[in-house]
Structures are given as structure tokens and as C-alpha cells.
Amino acid sequence: MARVYNFSAGPAVLPEEVLREAAEEMMDYQGSGQSVMEMSHRSKVYDNIIKEAEADLRELMNIPDNYKVLFLQGGASQFFAEVPMNLMKNKKAAYIITGQWAKKAYKEAQIYGEAVAVASSEDKTFSYIPDCSDLDIPEDADYVYICENNTIYGTKFKTLPNTKGHILVSDVSSCFLSEPIDVTKYGVVYGGVQKNIGPAGVVIAVIREDLITDDVLEGTPTMLKWKTQADADSLYNTPPCYNIYICGKVFKWIKKMGGLQAMKEHNEKKAKILYDFLDESKLFKGTVVKEDRSLMNVPFVTGDKELDAKFVEEATKAGFVNLKGHRSVGGMRASIYNAMPIEGVEKLVEFMRNFEKENA
Ligand SMILES: *Cc1c(COP(=O)(O)O)cnc(C)c1O
After folding, report:
1. Which residues does residue 96 pair with via DSSP β-bridges, in sequence order?
2. Which protein residue has the closest C-alpha to ligand 1 atom 12?
């Protein structure tokens, strides 16, 4: 079996242990005589799977009782619409634009009301997080929206913005479960799972209970109304059963690894190996302001497009795959999510060191 080191930004690497377990249970899930893909989402055995997944997530993230956990579909991109549909009572919201995903969410919100860009780092190709300590947030804004970890550009909010009492909505797709967070600071925390948790097709949303109401924008489809999903415990219709089952396995794997604090230390250690190398390298250089560097997505360049392409090609041949940067920024990007082992990063750095010598 030849497994590669997969640095994809998403869908991304999953823990090998989880994949093996899933393979073992493929034909017969715990004596049920069926695969999880084949069973009714209304069955007792599936009910246990989804309930246990929620309970484990609640424990990992220390989610208070007044927050609901929803397993949804449509990707993070559909959630860009769900946020204004469910929260825009005054038809006004403040958006902090730190990259393409935040910008897409902002544009989507403009369909439903007045989305105000209160800060942006577009002036420097989103290579930093703007100062959000004293923003000009409209008094009647329904919420303040951020993308907490910018998958494409490799920046991360190290401190949350001062929302001046407004509800904070955060897209954590690419930093979900990478470190502990204080859920009580948010109204809504959500993300697609295909970056750091599981197979594409599930969005997990953690939403403060009082924000889940019947008072949604006119015309909101039943399925996109959080109340519908919350009242049905995410089983209003057929959920992505198998994908939720894999997410549940990843939650158990993280628990076994020591929880989110241990995950954070593991991620810091991994990221440091790569960033330290980028800081000393004469060929490669990171593209992000040091203070705002992401632990999950590490973009870098050589400064020469042809050399970048040569690097990506040779790295691929050596078993380090999906290192090409996002099509909008070029260069390289190593996504080093929870499931990337430390050896993967150590070996990548060794490979980069050799490439640098050979191409000096
Ligand atoms: C990948 C990503 C998205 C888009 O996710 P989809 O599930 O493909 O819609 C949104 N936000 C962030 C931060 C992402 O990394």
C-alpha cells in the first residue's frame, strides 16, 4: 500500500486509523449485517451513530447547552446564504473581508440585504488580518461575519474582532477542531468538514439557540431554515449518513489524541517546522505576515514561476502531493491539517532543503 503525503487544501488527508476502521466496518457495521451507507437514517443503529457524533463533538468543543449542533448539507458555500436568510432581521450585516471565501459570503449576503464591508486586507493580496479592534460597525447590523482561517491565503484571526456587542458569525471550515475555541464568543460557528474533519458533503453548524427562530427572510426554503433542522435533530430529510459516520470517527480519533489542546500543540509543532525553514531559506519564502500565519495552510513561493512549477512536479514524483497553490494566487501551499503526521512535514522540509541545494 503506497500512501502519499497529501497536502491538499480540501478534500484533505484523513487519519489512517479512521480509514482502516471504516474499511473493516464496510460490509458489516457492528453486527448489523449492513454497511452504514445502506441503513435507514431512521434506524436505531444510525440514530446511535449521529447522537454519539454530536455528543463527542460537544465534549471536544465544550459546547454549552444553549447551543445547537446541526449536521447540514450544501457545503460552506450554501451556508453563505443561510446566514443572511436566518439572521438578517434588519437586513444589514458587517463583513470583514480577509480572502476569497469571506468575499463570496459578503457577495451572497448582498442578495438578501445590505452587507457592509467594515474591514479588508485586499490591498495586500489578503496577506494579513486587518486590525479589528475598533471597527465602524453599523449600530443596526444583525451580525459581524468573519472567515477565521483563510484557506487560500494562509492567514488566521489570532484574536476575534471586537464586534461591539453584535453577534459574531465565523466560518471555521479550514481550522475546525484544530485548537480549542470559546464557543460562547460566537453566535454561529460553522464549517464544511472536508478540510479538517471528514468527507465532503457535511457542514457542521454550532448555533446559539436564541438565533434559531421562525423569523427568517421571506422566501427562505424550508430546508435552509435552521429551525427546521434543529427541530428535527438534523434528520428532517435524509442526511449524508455515511459522511457523518466518518466525522464521528474523526471526533473519537481526536479524543484519543488528547482533545483540542493536544491537537493545537501538535499543529503548532508541525507548522513551526515548516515556517522556521521558510524563514531561513534563501529560495523559498512565506507569503503571509508572521503574526497572522495560519497553522493549517502554509503558502510559499520561490519568486520564479518556472521554479515553482518544477518544485511542484518533483515533489509530486517524490510522494508529496497537492502542493500547488490556489489558482488565484499561484506558488505553493502546504495544507497541514490535524491528520497530517509530523513526519509528513519533516520529510517535506527535507525535500525542500535538497531542492534548494540543487537549484541554488
Ligand atoms: C473550502 C472553503 C469553503 C467552501 O466550502 P464548500 O464546502 O466547497 O462550499 C468556504 N470557506 C472556507 C474557509 C473554505 O476553506
Report:
1. 119
2. 173
Instruction: Give the cell for residue 152.
Output: 487560500
Residue 45 to residue 15: CA distance in whole angstroms = 24
Grid coordinates of 212: 434559531
Could you give the count of Cα atoms lying within 13 Å of 29 in the half-sphere of its Cβ? 18
Position 1 confidence tier, pLDDT thresholds 50, 70, 90: low
For residues 74 and 89, what is the distance between their CA atoms, to the nearest angstrom?
23
- The number of residues making up the chain comes to 360
**Residue ranges of E strands in 98-148:** 114-120, 144-147
Note whether 224 and 85 are within 8 A (CB).
Answer: yes
User: Around 96, how many Cα atoms within 13 Å sit in the side-chain half-sphere?
Assistant: 29
| Ligand 1 centroid, distance to 34 Cα (angstroms) | 32
Q: Is residue 285 within 8 Å of residue 89, measured between CB atoms?
A: no
- Strands 168-171 and 144-147 come out as parallel
> Contact 90/142 with Cβ under 8 angstroms?
yes
Helix axes 44-61, 259-280, angle to 10 degrees: 60
Q: Which of 153, 145, 151 is nearest to 190 (CA)?
A: 145
Q: Are 177 and 338 in contact (CB under 8 A)?
A: yes
The whole-angstrom separation of Cα 18 and Cα 35 is: 15
Alpha carbon 124 to chain centroid, angstroms: 23
Q: Mind listing the pLDDT tens digit for each residue in 211-225?
A: 999 999 999 999 999
Q: What is the pTM of this model?
A: 0.98
* Centroid of ligand 1 to alpha carbon of 11 (angstroms): 10
Q: Which atom of ligand 1 is nearest to the CA of 101?
A: 11
Average pLDDT estimate for 104-121: 98
Q: How far separated are the first and last CA of the chain, in Å rounded?
A: 35
Centre of ligand 1 to C-alpha 249, Å, is 22
pLDDT in tens, 226-255: 999 999 999 999 999 999 999 999 999 999
Instruction: Check if the beta carbon of residue 149 is closer than 8 Å to that of residue 172.
Output: yes
